[in-house]
Amino acid sequence: MKGGWFRGYTIAYLIFLYAPIVLLPIFAFNNSTTVAFPLNGFTTLWFGKLWEDPALHRALSNSLIIGISAAVISTALGVFASRASTRYAFPFKGGLMGLIMLPLVLPDIILAVALLTVLLGIGTPLSLMTVILGHVLVCTPFSIAILSASFQSLDHSLEEAAYDLGETPISAFRLVILPLVLPGIISSLLITFTISLDEFIMAFFLAGNENTLPVYIFGQFRFPQNVPVILALGTILVCLSIALLATAEYFRRRGIAKTGGKDTGGFL
Questions:
Q1: Phi, psi angle pair for 223, to nearest 5°
Q2: CATH topology of domain 55-259
Q3: 142 and 218 in contact (C-beta within 8 Å)?
Q4: Of 116, 160, 212, 229, which residue is 20 to 30 A from 122 by alpha carbon distance?
Q5: Which PANTHER family match (predicted)?
Q6: How far is 193 from 68, CA to CA, in rounded Å?
Q7: CA end-to-end span of the chain, whole Å?
Q8: By C-alpha distance, which of 143, 140, 146 is closest to 255?
Q9: Domain segments of the chain: what residues?
Q10: How far is CA 1 from CA 4, 6, 7, 8, 12, in A?
Q11: In degrees rounded to 5, what are phi and psi of residue 33?
């Protein structure tokens, strides 16, 4: 009896969670500007209109610039922070790592308002660079969480063997450690890029006159005739996000297997 109740709860929860994602492509291919049943027929018109909007192209370009920059910077910071936290002991280690990971639990709007106040206080104009700073703040804890597992599973005897063969700490890190954690680095790049691409609040507060893709989508919902086009764009983004997450999970598992560590759970 208890198993049946739990099974029913699980099915209801999954339907509630994924029904909007299933409905998204259904209405994206619907030949009507009204998002409602019954459907009026199949069309790819809304996908074609995505190529006709220069504002969308500009927003997409901005989001790609921000996403790639934030992914690279946050992953680089994640590599150094994860290496330090898993390999060395230093004063106030727990407190410092707690502060670095704090954006994981703080509401994004609090971080955005705080960063906006600081930037305006020091006279920094709002631009894509300020959005990148905000996204790095949000993405770095995720990068550290991913990379810490890769560094923790390393066999330290390999590093010691490199020292015995005459390598310096820098060359041992470059020639031995980095190749072993490379799958984790790739996973971090993909995950942080996905997070940055989807981030709305930071971009809304910090972009100034530059639109990003989430801000553009938010603005288009004011016009009912544009909703099907946004649903088509959303379908593409969902497929892209699933592909990136699946690829990131593949590299994460490959990295754990490569370093001989245990898989303690992942994204998928």
A1: -115, 105
A2: MetI-like fold (1.10.3720)
A3: no
A4: 212
A5: PUTRESCINE TRANSPORT SYSTEM PERMEASE PROTEIN POTI
A6: 6
A7: 29
A8: 146
A9: 55-259
A10: 5, 9, 10, 11, 17
A11: -85, -5
Q: How many residues does the chain have?
A: 268
For 208-224, what is the mean pLDDT? 83
Spatial contact of 74 and 140, defined as CB atoms under 8 Å apart: yes
pLDDT tens track for 53-78? 788 889 889 999 999 999 999 999 99
- Joined tokens for residue 243: 């592909």
